[in-house]
Design goal:
The protein has one domain: Mannitol-specific EII, Chain A. Helix content is 40%, strand content 21%. The chain is built from five helices and five strands, in the order βααββββααα. Strand 4 and strand 5 form a beta hairpin. The longest helix has 14 residues. The radius of gyration is 14 Å and the shape is globular. It holds the Pfam family PTS_EIIA_2. Keywords: Kinase, Phosphoprotein, Phosphotransferase system, Sugar transport, Transferase, Transport. It comes from Metasolibacillus meyeri. One of its GO terms (molecular function) is kinase activity.
Length: 145
């Protein structure tokens, strides 16, 4: 994975959300704080979730904005949020939420790279049990070799 897009500062192990909406806002706010997107992008992430669930299996959800949200993206970025306790995501348990902001054509490439890594249950376990952001970066780097 392009390491300039996934950076240590955007990997958080202290997710506090108790609901799907709170989790989307929490991970979306990291994208806003780090300057990847404008504040309107978070609302578009919630709209996108209302249209189609972003649950991917293996305790992973990948919320991202609608097509109309592209204007709110300043530069591509990812935010990773790990939760100690599962969040109910339309009846599925989620502990790993990866917020995606893909500028231009990068959106599908980012989705694809995340899907490749997280399709392997052992990679998701490594991320959930990681004690540092470096371990998460290493898992993504190895998974996309």
């Amino acid at each position: 994975m392009n390491m300039s897009i996934l950076v240590k500062e955007n990997i958080r192990f202290n997710g506090q959300a108790k609901t799907k909406e709170e989790a989307i806002r929490e991970v979306g706010n990291v994208l806003v704080e780090q300057g990847y997107v404008g504040a309107t992008y978070v609302e578009k992430m919630l709209e996108r979730e209302a249209l189609t669930s972003t649950f991917m299996g293996n305790m992973l959800a990948i919320p991202h904005g609608t097509e109309e949200a592209k204007a709110a993206i300043m530069t591509s970025g990812l935010a990773v949020m790990v939760y100690a306790n599962p969040i109910d995501w339309n009846g599925e348990a989620v502990r790993l939420v990866i917020g995606i902001a893909g500028a231009g054509g990068e959106h599908l490439e980012l989705l694809s790279q995340i899907a490749i890594v997280c399709a392997e249950e052992e990679n998701v376990e490594r991320i959930l049990n990681a004690s540092s952001a470096d371990e998460v970066l290493q898992t993504f780097a190895e998974g996309n070799e």
